[in-house]
Every structure is written in C-alpha cells, then in structure tokens.
Amino acid sequence: MAIGGAVAVAISGLAVTVLSAETPREQSQSRAELERLQDRIDLDIRPLARQGVYVRTTGLAARCVSVLVDNLTVPNKTYLARRYGAGACLRQASSIPGPGCSLLSRRDSGQSKTVPDMFDLGLYEAERRLVAAEFAFSIECPGKADGRPSRPSRYSPDALVRVTRQCPAAGATLAAGAPVALQAEAILPGGHRYVVGAFRGHVECTNRGLEGR
Q: pTM here?
C-alpha cells in the first residue's frame, strides 16, 4: 500500500490512478520549509538593507512567508522573488496608522514655550531637540504625545528620513509638554518615497497643534 502518493488500481480491465491525501508528515515538512525560509529572510534583513532593500517584518502564513517591504519597487520585487522563490509572499508595507491611532486630549500646563524649527533634521535629532525645549513629539498618531526619543536602527529607513513638516510651525507659542507633530521623508533606493509622521487622515494644523477636522 502506498501512502502519500499515487496508487494504480485495476477495475474491470481499466487502470485507474487514485491520488491519496497528503500525509501529516508531508504537511509538517512543508511548514518546516517555510519556517526555514522565514529564518533565512530574517537573517538577511541587515544585508538587504545595506543593498537598499528594506524589509520591515516577516510572518508565517498558511502557504508562504509574508514579507513586508518598505520599498517594494518593481526591481526590488523581482530581486526578492528570484532570491526567495514562490515561498515568499511580498507585500508593500503600509504607512497608514492603524485603527487604534486616534486623537488624544491634551492638558494645558499653564506655561508656554516657543516651538523650535525642526526642518531638515533627522527624526531622532528632532525628537531630542523638542524634548530639550520641554515639548513632547507626535510621530505615529496625531495628538499622541511621546517624550522619549528613540534612535532608529541604521538598517531601518527611519534612519534616513529628514523632517519636512511640523505643527505648530517654528516660532509659534505652545503649552509646555504639548506634542509637536512631525512628518519626515526620504527617497529610498529605487525612487520609493518613504514617509513617516502624524500628518495623515482628517487632520489640520492649528496654533494648538495637529487636530482632527
């Protein structure tokens, strides 16, 4: 008796081929292959970044390894598909905030400060200067304050971006401790425009900061 393959059966002089179901062993081997592929891609994240291909994260799906890429241009997609084969499902990483990203209420500290100019600074340096000026900053979500600068990995495109927008504008007066919203951009290899920041969705810039419309 054959297991996991084709079985030839003679019925009334006719040869009939019956395809048996995949065995649990074959299923586990298939999943093991995907796990090995995922490990391989994870180990390649830094070497790929040195080549200008930015893989944000990987995940194990039912039939492939899901690979989120920050700059999935046509050349990069072709290169990754050739490198990893059909087992890698390539996706362009989204820069849209998740559903949990919403405007938060802010308390007035009663003390006002002048907002410094963040234009063309790296994101980490902009965060540091805002905290030094007694402000918080908002990157991912409009109105969500953060007061702890985070240095991005040099293998992340966040290390390349420069501030292109801020709210309120430089020179405005804002309550101490309130967040200054930032947007930063970089053109990644392949011409992909990479953007991070809070200027997304139905928002507008006022003298109190970024607010919902």
A: 0.71
